[in-house]
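Re-run requested by the PI after the first attempt was lost when the workstation crashed. Everything re-entered from the original request form. Ligand of interest: manganese (II) ion.
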Amino acid sequence: MNVEDIRIKSLKQTLDSKIKESDSVTIVPHIRLDFDAIGSSIALYIMALRQRKRVNILINDNYNELDCGIKTVLKEITTKGFNIINYNEYKDRYANSNDLLILTDTSQQTLIPIEEDIIKKKVLEEKIIEIDHHNYGNSTIDAKDKFILPEYSSACEIITKMLFTSRVRFSKEIATYLYAGIWLDSNRLTKRGSNNETHKWAGKLVENNADIDKVNDLFIEDYNDNQKIQELVSNHMKMFSYTIACLIGEDDKKYSCEDLAKAADACLKYRIDASFAIGNVSDSMVSISARSKGNINVGEIMKEFDGGGNYLAAATKIKDEKPSEVSKKLMKALRPNYYIDKEN
Ligand SMILES: [Mn+2]
């Protein structure tokens, strides 16, 4: 057994024992829910339910700002009786009880809808487990049970491997949701976001009847329905040094972070190395979403703007500036040294 397999085994044991000794379990996907966060949450939900615990998924996002594919998934699981609670309900009923928190697809305080005081208490009580495929960040919560595994494409890949290697059986619906998470974060299983292992676990899900056509629909419906993304990509693209695309939203328009991420992602179908989508996400907040095919380290660039992410996908938020101003600063920051030296 290699180190990674041991980590996965230890994750399973930790989940089993911690769930067992808790009265209830609250699963916490990151804010601005995406397919990886919700897919992994659903699988964890089923695991906890099998131990006959009350289980919740805590989602505090504004429903209207979620993308259509995510809304479809939420509709499906609420119909099946999943308990989805908001932060007020969590705070009233679970924050002070023997409730286990399982964070998935993030380890960062700034990306979850729970106040810091409560998290600190949960850390002390050892009532928090973190599962993430992103690297440590500035606000990573220092809980005892951290499973931060950046060698995986997605939280869903981690969970999928855990389920298969510990022979947990699951339905074809769960397989489909897990596949959707892997599909999103591996950049549709291309070389940019996946490796042989990712394909192996995705293949296992297909063997278990994951509905890959449904996954495809969840994504396509999305992009074609979204006029804002289409408009950004077709009318607001600027090129830098031939290899970097920059989508600059209008100063008086608002976008969701998810839309910006998708727009940046959509640009990668062109012959470019990286893309940035810039737009207002609220009245006084501009966000940049960055994507790279691997030759440019967008994580480093976003760090200069106090953001985070990895070399393939990164983002940041900037207060009290306009998209047009932010794009000028970004242009200055785009220096050749962000190109990754292929020989190393
Ligand atoms: Mn993810």
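Saved to the shared folder this time. The mean pLDDT is 92.
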